[in-house]
Amino acid sequence: MDERMFYPAIFQPEEEGGFSIIFPDVKGCITQGEDMNDGYEMAFDALGNMLSYLEESGKEIPNPSEPQKIHLDEGQFLVVIEFNMLEYKKKNDSRAVKKTLTIPSWLNEVAIRQNINFSQVLQEALMARVKQ
Questions:
Q1: Residue 58 included in any domain
Q2: What does the mean pLDDT of the chain come to?
Q3: pLDDT for residue 51 is more than 90
Q4: Does residue 85 form part of some domain?
Q5: CATH number of the domain to which 18 belongs
Q6: Interatomic CA distance for residues 107 and 19, integer angstroms
Q7: Whole-prediction pTM value?
Q8: Does any domain span residue 132?
């Protein structure tokens, strides 16, 4: 899931100000915001957290509904949240993972003598090779 998806979010204005926000396609994905900007950011974060959790748990990630098919109650309005899992992970998941690899002994010795950072070189090479 590394392409853009557009999830409809229902914004419900609250009497005390701000908004409650729910995603009809993503069960349990609920948040709130103090104003539209805050609401959008909170909605994006809540969606990213929930979809990441589903992916890591091996659960199915729901497809977004077509906005025109969402039923709204009086006062509610729809905001479509653009989401891209790869971009979300780049910004929010920088956990390091240990990888075991093999290289020729002579190359290891030369790289150590030249104080080459193996992790950095591997990361740079992978970034250059992966499709983003």
A1: yes
A2: 91
A3: yes
A4: yes
A5: 3.30.160.250
A6: 58
A7: 0.73
A8: no
Return the bridge partners of 84, or none: 4
The answer to whether the beta carbons of residues 79 and 43 sit under 8 Å apart is yes
Calpha distance 46→41 (Å, rounded): 9
Contact status, residue 5 vs residue 64, Cβ threshold 8 Å: yes
Which tens digits make up the pLDDT trace of 100-124? 889 999 999 999 999 999 988 998 8
In sequence order, which residues have a C-beta less than 8 Å from that of residue 60 and are 6 or more positions away?
54
- Residues 20, 60: contact at Cβ < 8 Å? no
**What is d(CA 79, CA 86) in angstroms, rounded to the nearest whole number?**
22
**90 vs 70, more confident:** 70
Could you give the CA distance from residue 110 to residue 104 in angstroms, rounded to a whole number?
10
> b/e per residue, 58-91, with b = 16+ CB within 10 A?
eeeebebeeeeebeeeeeeeebebebebeebeee
How many residues appear in the chain? Answer: 132
Residue 118 domain flag: no
